Amino acid sequence: MRKEKVLFVCIHNSARSQMAEAWLNHLYGDRFEAHSAGLEAGTLNPLAVAAMKEVGTDISHKKTQTVFSLFHKGELFSYVITVCDEASAEQCPVFPEATKRLHWSFPEPAALVGTNEEKLAAIRTIRDNIRHTIVEWYYSLHIS
Length: 144
Prior knowledge:
Largest sheet: 4 strands, parallel
Number of domains: 1
Low-confidence stretches: none
Strand order of the largest sheet: 2-1-3-4
Structural class: alpha/beta
Shape: globular
CATH class: Alpha Beta
Strand content: 15-25%
């Protein structure tokens, strides 16, 4: 069975899209091949790395990349899922052959305020909400 390719997109490819990619590959990697990219390449958020490590997934080796680099390579995806705010999602280019474009809004981790522990707690919530959304989406596709 050929895996469906999914691209998760956010602003800098530094946290939300990286976590979504990791979750989909971890939970449903037998059915999907997930990738992530940003509107701009950023720096991987160390608190996102720590939050994912807490649940047994190491994303520390991941590199950030731009959605435009994938677009220019001619990558094809069954789904392009933006995980940033509405305004940022509208800046995402349309990928040829993408059958579905979805938007799941999650808070911007770079905009979090407080101590590192407070920010980490907020990123844990974002991480868990991303996982929950992926599970719900998966079941919505496969219930029949």
